[in-house]
Fold this sequence. Notes:
By secondary structure, the protein is an all-alpha fold.
Amino acid sequence: MAGPGRGYSKLPSERVRRNKDGYDENGFVVPREKKTQDKLELPEWDGVVRGPELSAHPQGDAWHPQTIKWWETWRKSPQAMYCIDTDWESLFMGAIVYGRIMRGVSNTALAALTGELRKREGMFGAALEDRLRLGMGETTETIKEDIGIEVEVQKTVSYFDMVNQRVAEAQENKGKDRDATGRDSTT
């Protein structure tokens, strides 16, 4: 029986879990290894436009040109090679959301709609972060290395920008310290 205020038993013999930890030869808990998901290598797009044409807007409105472009981008993406009918239905709902955003909405509605669109696009691996999370794309290690290199380059560039700015400020201040005759006022 569980103790007061607890919905579970702390006694190992009474615990019921599917993800039980193992024990080593000394009786120490050894956490179970997580199952590794097979990586889905997205091939280069093969040039075949997949999926249905963007069907008529549910309210009979004309689609915004950016929405049509968004839809065609998905039809030509490597992810489209794996989409089935239900995936295209989900993307169609995303097209409706995208169209509403493109037509302009209030800030409150915009926040809700962009969150919904981001969620839908994330399920299909729209951004690099999504593809890394889903295990898609080039070898994940290569992408991580590229990201690491890019971060280091940005840090270096930022550092040199800061140094250049300080040098410029020092030269500017030095010019202010000179008197009208061109001599340093500190001498």
